[in-house]
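#dry-run=false #mode=assembly
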Amino acid sequence: MKKCLTLLCCLLGSVAGIAAQDITTLQKIGSVASFTRSEKGVTLTCSDNSQVQLTVLAADLVRIRTSFGKGIPSRDHSWAIEKTDWPTARWSLLTNDASISLKTDELEVFVHRNPLIIEFRDVATGRIINADEQPMAHDAKGLLKEMMFDPAAGPFVAVSKRLGFDEHFYGLGEKAARLDKRRSSFVNWNSDTPGYTEGKDPIYQTVPFYIGLDRGAAYGIFFDNSYRSYFDFGKSSQQRIWFGAEGGEIDYYFFHGPSIKKILGRYTELTGRMPLPPLWALGNQQSRWGYYPDKMVEEVVKQYRERDLPLDVVHLDIDYMQAYRVFTWDPKRFPDPKVMTEKLGRQGVKIITIVDPGIKHQPPSAGASSTTSRLPLELQDRSYYVFDEGLKNNYFQRRKNGDLFVPRVWPGESVFVDYTLPAARQWWGELHRAYTDFGVAGIWNDMNEPSDFVDQTGKNQIDVVSNDAGANSTHAKNRNVFGLLMSRATYEGLQKLQPEKRPYVITRAAYAGIQRYSTMWTGDTNSTWESLSLNIPMFTSLGLSGQPFVGSDVGGFIGRGNGELLTRSYQISFLAPFCRNHKVIDGYDQEPWRFGKHYEDIIRKYLKLRYQLLPFLYTTLEEAHRTGVPLFRPLMLNYQDDTNTYNLDDQFMVGNDLLLAPIVKPDVTRRLVYLPKGTWYDYWTNKKHEGGTMISVEAPLETVPMFVRAGAIIPMGPELNYVGERPMDPLTFNIYPDERGIASVTFYEDDGLSPAYKQGAFRRTTINAESVAGGYNVTISKPEGSFRPGPRKLSFVIRAPGRAYKAVTITDDGSARKVRIS
Ligand code: MIG
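#status=ok
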């Protein structure tokens, strides 16, 4: 039997390229010979001269760093980490001949000396939360050389953990996979994978962070290693899960829960949180590979306005550039971009331009040189300022032998910037003047895996060296952080060019920590039901990996969709942070009206609802910014004790209060919906349902099953066709009382545009409703923060079935108020 399994693994391995590694054959770390104690932890020295450093960063956060056969290097650098200065947390040390134990107020790290096995125990319950299944190991003999991208960058390092019989796994960033990652395995190697389907792995991003959930208690592990990495959550073994990488250190952070929300809070404290994007970024967005010339963009906007469809943003794909030269405009297609953005601006529409990392490789012809982005066509062909400047300043990536690295991307032969160089990042950031000067509102970073048409595996880049904060390391280490650093350069550039505005960046590739700089979308999906069904598990998994601002091409990118697919797609994305319809250049058109009025009318209903829900969405997004808990949630995040939710990934929640059960199959107009314990209101009918069970719900094409948690108050604004069309007035508070007749909300607002919210220019208002004497008393507390929205009307509506209550409207003057509804 065992033989069969091994054989099967080998067969699978040759296809998947991963299961074949048998990490049990790797050389295990020696036993603990001695240790030293420091203020923040201990360093173990092992019988084979390896060292392990255990550092207490907080009561619920411990870092494990291991170096095989030598001492821990003094260099300690990561592009992912934001916070390094942790105040010393209380911890104690207990040692004897057999073990060394570090104990914080929450977590005990218990180290068996021989063999060296690390266990994490919950101090409150004494339970082992997580334990090594075998000692940490490395490939001292080069057994895995064959499968490594760059054997010279190795050796392979691996950590092996015991697999719980009923343990579930979540997170791991962007994977074309289901919510619960149990019994599957993954590779992280940022890759351009157009038309990916479920199971395709890796795809664009690397976030080596996961959450384990065992018997209701969660922990987190962030393996901060940017080499090609592997996570096997019990696919190749029933006893063990393991993670490893093709080089670098074992360097991981262990987060103690037991609450997942708490873990996300810590993880995003460590790797940074999402700054608030401009409010208009929550508006509806429309894109198309091939929106040119300017007249076509204007026509799209005209159609949106004439058809009364809300729209905030149009994206310009690669065709706006002059022969794919980044930071230029094609003067024939877009003769006057500033006039265009102003014209669209008057209709409430903003422009976002795509920016690829590939800079056209174009040595200047004799005599020609310029530093403007708007040379006439003939002159740009002779001299391209971006190439000239980058070359002169030595900002471009080079091979080990000193040659420029020349990949092939959209401009043909190209060069890439070494974004690990601070000066190069700054230069790249400032180049965005070519857009901000013309009124462009945000930047879309594509192709930053980085994609290379010569070879998508990265082999063509194997000897490309990046400065890497002085380490001068090769592609094996830097590929997975390329997108992160490009986005960072973009974000910091926009911040510098327009300090009064919040930057808005979208990226395809990323590494952990990306949320500090950029939002993301899930790349080149298909216009198929299969692809659509991945939306929910992918958005929720990204949220569980620190990335709250996510979305997918509405309607799907590649292939021909239809009205039903597009409509169902909007019924998910109208509540995703990033709501953008996008289509490949040679695909059938899929703007909301393309399949006829019937579908267009339904889509309009959802887009209008999204805009009305902006106060609710923004409040929930601010929570993500402040706490790391995402807007778009799997049910298990809100109901961690409910095992029914552990692999439920065709439903989602927005914040704590809205629950949706979309249709992701054709020709289906009814479905089962799981409602967790508590009372739920059908959003469309106000009908009440008792939760803790499955219900069967009608879902004709015009209706996505949508429920509100009893106890919630959902703030909604007026109908809008774009953000800022008119003030958020009136604000309507829809009250959904729970069994005790109580409901509440803490509502957030700010100017939606500037970074002033960081200095307290926001308003946070708590509203409580309580059933008293046949009516409701509503208390509006005195708002927090210095933002003054100006006078507006507040309406309070009780959404309970049965007896009709009269809505009450007051004029808000920012003071504490009491309202009676009878
Ligand atoms: O090689 O810019 O994912 O959204 O439309 C394809 C053209 C390059 C891939 C992106 C897609 C975009 C397309 N790009």
